[in-house]
Amino acid sequence: MLDTHDGIGVIDAGPSAHREGLISFEEMRDIFERAAVATRGHSALASVLPAWTALPHQINATFFSTLGADPTAYLLCRAVQLFVPGTPQIYYVGLLAGLDDTDLYARTANGRDVNRHFYSPDEIAEALAAEVPRAILALVRLRATHAAFDGDFSWEAGGDSLRLAWRTAGASAVLEARVTRGDVGFVLEVSGPDGPVRFDGVTALAG
Question: Which residue ranges does the record assign to the Sucrose phosphorylase C-terminal domain (predicted)?
Answer without folding.
Answer: 148-182
